[in-house]
Design goal:
This protein is 70% helix and 0% strand. The protein has a domain of 64 residues. It is mostly helical. It is elongated, with a radius of gyration of 37 Å. The model has no long low-confidence stretch (mean pLDDT 81). The chain is built from two helices and no strands. Belongs to the Tom22 family. It comes from Hibiscus syriacus (Rose of Sharon). This is Mitochondrial import receptor subunit TOM9-1.
Length: 105
């Protein structure tokens, strides 16, 4: 059974040392050209992903600020114009003028 430390934790048994044959196979596999190409492909994919995320964020920022600067004031002005036309129609009906159909655009 594993020895316990003073704090109440359990320490793991010591690792077995790897044999020479296992380490040489591992060294041959990690130094193979297929593994090197795989690592390079993974690094390239990560680099492209970071660039894509960064450029997507910039594009979203540009689209959002453009919307705020150009479209929101247009929506506010259109709403204001509709409220004004409804007010004119209400005032005309209170004064006794014949109701007219609102101008359709």
């Amino acid at each position: 059974m594993a020895a316990q430390s003073k704090r109440g934790g359990v320490s793991l048994p010591e690792r077995r040392s790897a044999s020479k044959a296992e380490s040489s196979i591992l060294a041959r596999i990690t130094s193979s050209p297929i593994v090197s190409r795989g690592k390079q492909a993974a690094c390239d994919a990560a680099f492209v992903s970071k660039k894509l995320i960064r450029s997507t964020g910039k594009a979203a920022w540009i689209a959002g600020t453009t919307f705020l600067i150009l479209v929101v004031p247009l929506i506010i002005e259109m709403d204001r114009e509709q409220q004004f036309s409804e007010l004119e129609l209400q005032q005309a009906s209170l004064l006794g003028a014949p109701p007219t159909a609102p101008a359709s655009k």
